[in-house]
Amino acid sequence: MRDNYNGGSVPGWQTAVLYAVAFIGMFFVWHAMNNDIWFMLNGGRYVAEHGFLYTDVFSVHDNLAYVMQQWLSAVIFWEIYECWGQAGLFVFESVM
Questions:
Q1: What is the DSSP secondary-structure string of 18-45?
Q2: 90 CB contacts (<8 Å, ≥6 apart)?
Q3: pLDDT tens across 37-69, in order?
Q4: 29, 47, 53, 80: which has the fewest Cβ within 10 Å?
Q5: Is 82 helix (H, G, I), strand (E, B) or coil?
Q6: What is the pLDDT of residue 42?
Q7: Is 82:74 a contact under the CB 8 Å cutoff?
Q8: Cα separation of 11 and 16, whole Å?
Q9: DSSP state, residue 65
């Protein structure tokens, strides 16, 4: 009886097709910035320049206690935006 198992290797063209199928949807996604990203960018800029937020400096309330739970991602987004603008954020989003 002959065994058709080839040791787990996949031909190169099948691997290329697999990767193409996995990432083809990325080209059909509408890349638009929603309103939340501007809040994140502003928070990331503030943390990068002044340190952690303890009071909300962006709202109309005075001395409102505030915990910025997403500070690290906001700083990463701000650094990407500062270096490469919206295109950098789109590339980062697509890679993620």
A1: HHHHHHGGGGGS-----HHHHHHHHHHH
A2: 31
A3: 888 999 999 999 999 888 887 877 788 888 888
A4: 29
A5: helix
A6: 92
A7: no
A8: 9
A9: B
